[in-house]
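pasting for the record
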Amino acid sequence: MPVNSDEFRSALSRFPSGVTVVTSRDEEERFHGITVSAFCSLSLDPPRVLICVEKTSGSHLALESSKAFVVNMLSAEQKDVSDRFASLAEDKFESLEFETGIDGIPLLIGCLATLECRVTNSYDGGDHSIFVGEVEKATVNDGDPILYFRGDYRSISS
């Protein structure tokens, strides 16, 4: 018998993760973004990453249709950005500073790194889809990361 969802969530909360915002653009060229902690590197050659996105999120459809996304790795100063993109706000980009990258997809300002990716594969992952992206461009900045552990934000020093 599999573990129940509460036990599973509790166990996973003990694994600290970085926090990213994955941005994309739908067929009508509207911007989408979602806070994602289910992100990891997959391959160095070719350079690939994977993200896992809940199928019911608005960003899921945009990722399926656009075939490109940007991973914005958040800094310790961007807790408000993480909260904004984890919310159900209608326009998450309103009054937010950003540039555009691959296929006109938003690159958030102030991130530790951004990875501009083309979707190479997607897989069923239960209530999530797993999107594999080949990294076409990487931008790196200095700073400390925001971490997520046991349901709260943390920093490296805490």
